[in-house]
């Protein structure tokens, strides 16, 4: 009796059938495009939808008739979906998906802006870009903390607690010292403290890493909430009045239209966040440390046989992740707000989603964080122009975008093979 070997690619194709992931997304995008062209086009008005290149309604602007724009961009989104449904080459998938989603959002905005009351039918692009990056900042730092941990094989569900402890420590010690740099260092130490607990219990005592992360989040909420009520609330002038980092303007770059005022007239946290994305990406994929980190996250036993100190590397990377997340928490209290109880408000879990959406890559995490930051700012903007969309739906828009992105767009992803698996040295 003879047997015939069937290539794995052919088996995968047979198992997947006609409705591949690309075709499914294409069909959904096609439906969204048709919906946008028909529904948004019918609801839009003949007022001009203005996208100003400044912070106000004055100056240069990109304008388009509301109805025409809603229909036109809906058609573009439908065309991108149809192309995906036709199973275009894989290299075009990301481009067409991006074009389709952007077109759908623009169709929606043409409807909303043109239907806004007179005097509010414009979108200031500088404010939108600036606010998107500001809202994405804690997500960027949190997602980078997740990358450092999970590339090393340690699940970091404690990002929420690390951000919160960093925000609290920065506010408290910045207020006591009257110095923003002392506050920044304290925030880094606060985040590292939560990471140290995670490292000790997960690496040394082999406690379930997901459970430990949840416990640490609750610990951070409890400790900071208690100290806030005992210290900060009764004596806010002494314990909760930290100085703020001022904005730093970068010559020449600050004069670039839209991006200049939005990105290059900002505080240290934006520059540091973007710099960390670049540094960690290069270090992770171009250095010996990065190679060892990825090896420990994928196959720690093999890394150990080659002389890599697996447990030591995991300890260092988890502590470094806490430092990064702690600085992200300080972006709240040393740049924007005074500390309040549980002020992170679930951003740590959205950062975890950005990590997955970005496929455990620093640059991918950055793009995912910006996507969620834009969704958050869009909800605020729609409320400001008096949108007829219920405020309750606008409030849940960032979280809805998170669910749709992770469940619908990210597709099949593979975490580092040893992620969450304790390593016991033989």
Descriptive labels:
disordered N terminus, two-stranded antiparallel sheet, ABC transporter involved in vitamin B12 uptake, BtuC, 17 helices, 426 residues, 4% strand
Task: Give me a quick take on this structure.
It is a multi-pass membrane protein. By secondary structure, the chain is mostly helical. 68% of the residues lie in helices and 4% in strands.
Descriptive account of the structure:
The protein is mostly helical. It folds into two domains: 21-115, no CATH class; 128-410, ABC transporter involved in vitamin B12 uptake, BtuC, CATH 1.10.3470. Helix content is 68%, strand content 4%. It is built from 17 helices and five strands. The protein has helices spanning 8-16, 21-43, 66-85, 93-114, 125-150, 159-177, 180-204, 209-232, 236-239, 259-263, 268-286, 288-298, 300-305, 310-333, 347-357, 362-384, 391-409; strands at 48-52, 61-65, 122-124, 248-249, 265-266. The strands form two sheets. A three-stranded mixed β-sheet has the order 2-1-3. A two-stranded antiparallel ribbon has the order 4-5. A hairpin with an 8-residue loop joins strand 1 (48-52) and strand 2. The radius of gyration is 24 Å and the shape is globular. 46% of the residues are buried. Mean pLDDT is 90; it is low at 1-15.
* Strand element count: 5
Main sheet strand line-up: 2-1-3
CATH 2nd-level architecture of the largest domain: Orthogonal Bundle
Largest sheet properties: 3 strands, mixed
Mean pLDDT: 90
Helical proportion, percent range: 55-70%
Q: Number of domains in the coordinates? A: 2
Distance between the termini: 45 Å
> What order do the SSEs take from the amino end to the carboxyl end, as H and E?
HHEEHHEHHHHHEHEHHHHHHH
- What are the segments in which pLDDT stays under 50 over at least 5 consecutive residues? 1-15
